[in-house]
Amino acid sequence: MNGAQALIRTLASLGVEVCFTNPGTSEMHFVAALDAVPELRAVLALFEGVATGAADGYARISGKPAATLLHLGPGLGNGIANLHNAKKAHTPMINVIGEHATYHRAYNPPLSLDIAGVAGSVSKFVRTSEKLAELVDDTVAAYRAAVMRPCGVATIIVPADLTWSEGIDSISPVSTTSPNQESTPRETDADLRLRAAAAALRGGDSCTLFLGGSALTKAGLVAASRLANAFGAKMLCESFPAVLHRGAGIPPIDRLAYLGEYAMMQLGGTKRLILVGAEDPVAFFAYPSKPSRYAPEDAEVMVLAGLDEDSEAILEQLVELLGVGGIEPTLQAALRPALPSGPLTGSAVAAAIGALLPEGAIVSDESITVGVMAPAATAGAPAHRWLTLTGGAIGQGMPLATGAAIASPGSKVVNIQADGSAMYTIQSLWTQAREKLDVTTVILNNKSYAILEMELDRVGAEPGGPRARSMLQLFPPQIDFASVSRGFGVPGVTVTSGEELVAQLQHAFAEPGPHLIEAILPQGIS
Amino acid sequence: MNGAQALIRTLASLGVEVCFTNPGTSEMHFVAALDAVPELRAVLALFEGVATGAADGYARISGKPAATLLHLGPGLGNGIANLHNAKKAHTPMINVIGEHATYHRAYNPPLSLDIAGVAGSVSKFVRTSEKLAELVDDTVAAYRAAVMRPCGVATIIVPADLTWSEGIDSISPVSTTSPNQESTPRETDADLRLRAAAAALRGGDSCTLFLGGSALTKAGLVAASRLANAFGAKMLCESFPAVLHRGAGIPPIDRLAYLGEYAMMQLGGTKRLILVGAEDPVAFFAYPSKPSRYAPEDAEVMVLAGLDEDSEAILEQLVELLGVGGIEPTLQAALRPALPSGPLTGSAVAAAIGALLPEGAIVSDESITVGVMAPAATAGAPAHRWLTLTGGAIGQGMPLATGAAIASPGSKVVNIQADGSAMYTIQSLWTQAREKLDVTTVILNNKSYAILEMELDRVGAEPGGPRARSMLQLFPPQIDFASVSRGFGVPGVTVTSGEELVAQLQHAFAEPGPHLIEAILPQGIS
Q1: Which residue of A118, A282, A461 is in closest CB contact with B32?
Q2: Which residue segments constitute the domains of chain B, with CATH numbers given?
């Protein structure tokens, strides 16, 4: 078989089931090989940022890495923003990027670009395969790097002549560990850290358990809640978790606020900040005369579980060590807000989603300012998973929803989506239509980059004049998202009242396949 | 004044008139400063690839660099593909990229990414400004790098605390040379090269003048045509020129074909390949058993004018040296194709554009396969400029048209746009609507990545099965570009016959402002 066939068969043998693609000429042999390897499902995206974001969403929900197929340096460039988000989410992913033939690179053809250099900014592993004989090993190495904790983005760059060269006889069944099963050995101090955390909690000295990553499963939250209840500790989670399990029957946890003023209040009084799969929280941006770190300066920061460890298991070990397995965790009561009526506001949209969110739903939340009410309104909805914008590179919500729906065909995926952010990867809708994905997108059309209207003040800039303000306004012309959506093959409707929104959400949740509901809101922050 | 104000005033003092923006929190002080510097026009884009492509289009038409304002590493990433195209077009451009505050970078906040590393892949100049006192000098250095031949992309990375820090008293009027006026001194061998080319032409030994860059002005083409006519030389130009002046009254020149089979025929028999602002032509991609270089192996390659020189002037010097200023150049006769009728094909679309193209039009050509007839059909249209996809990173046509229209408000801009490529930067339409730009976009909807259907065969891959073929097809669902266009605020219509297309083109050319005409074509290559 040729190199392309060998690579695809290797991925399939490793258990990779989906490849999000946006190929070009240098990847044609991969495309040609798809029919021979039906175990690998190819999902076409119209833009690389959709492919990389979808691979992120797929892995967050399935726990397994997807592959992407990208076209040379520019294709990688188009995918960088969502690869950055995936990196920050510690998402396992394998990028397969086509490159010019080994002998052709020296001619500096028009599409030449330093692929490895650019990929390095978002990848934990980058390798350019230089020999056919090493292509299978390189692919296995990329896979192993992707799934070794802390998981991340692995990139393999494949010159076209390797894809078309014949000479690989067979792929031996690849023996590999499962995703997340491997980690760098840290046993040396794991026990010490466990005992230090135990002592801190027993000391009762204003401890805050700060959770992230794999601590945010139901089991992890139950263990954390037992610890919090037994020792009067506080629980908080990172501002932008990759996946947060929440809803009725699951211990509730507040996310650290995006706004530093609130985040510092949440952490105020903490004497010991116990990190569990999360990093010491820092400000998203710097602001004049505001601190970069959020924890009180006198708080001791203790790592209980690093990003390269199984936080859920370590929390359970701590429960056992402290003998608090009999303590009841706090479980979220089932509770739904009333259905909204009248003119739409951010609160009304949040209430509608909270009132109707289906059991087992997956929420892709890129709601930015308008969505600030959404977590509270959905807190007591049936159990669901909540995916957030981990790296701050906007344009993630729609691709993430797309990949999550591929990973979990039985779940309703709800994408709460800000208007400005939607514009970076709006092409996601076409893939949702093509694959008949069960995604309901709620566009929050407030006709502005409302967060920037707020940030313009927060960074201490002069009051913006009309030219400055116009840079933050998404009108004129007002975007008609329903029309755009229909253009991509997804039924799109526009709603302006709570009653209309409720009716359209009920319709979308009852009917399989993608839907887009554009909620027209007051301009700016509401 | 603060750093942001100083930087913007410096750009304005250097003659930079337009900034294409997609700002975020770290760029808010730049936004706040816009009202105080009305000389710098800010044009908002919904996606960074639109901003960078528009800056490219602006500079190709105006001859002056525009600035871009991009948000951190992910914003740069989204702009990379069109920066790559600008790099290959040798377009002067200054990227201003916000970065976290100097003291905040150490905390590895969520949006951290190696901006300089990524920018280096597409920039001839990258500098992170580390001190307020150096910000103005850094800005001037970036400008000078951008406009020094060979022109290119200069990137200045500005930490947020520099933008908000006060302490710059005044910007002294910056003394600088005009764009393109400076070049690395090469006088040492310029005369030698001139005389060698003269000798080659006089020798009459199957010379081909291979033109690119600044040789493709009317004056450059007139000089080349005199040389060709005097000495029986052949004229060809690079496959994907940044700007080609053409049409009635201008010497016609064939572009080197994209397909190697044809390119090698065009260059066949050449004994001396004289490069004038162009590089030795190579294959866009490698193909099994096909050569990477296109010129005959026994042809001598001679550089008459390098990319860092004024090719137009050097051609005129050669005319003078050879005393052929009295030789008549071949000028294109005025000639229009007949108006098409009946079912639409690629030829019919090309004929309609050729029949109706207004005098002084600017054509942004990202027509890929369907547009193969467009150059011939427009060859005898009134004088116009033709912009092409210089770097092969698709998604350039619509932003380029946007920027060209900003640069030349009096010209009709016609964007001949393939459907698949349109999907990378479709958000351009919104900026066209917002700025009321005189752009007519003709979408060639053949429901496929038709070039890849061809390339799949050309790279010698196995005949694609249904899964492979589906990766190259843009249906189902069929994209409704007219609906998408209306969603972005640009009137959009769909046409299916020559008569309808003609009527809509006549309407669009008669009415100011943006229009989109979606031409429905047979599926695939037609």
Answers
A1: A461
A2: 3-164 (3.40.50.970), 187-322 (3.40.50.1220), 346-520 (3.40.50.970)
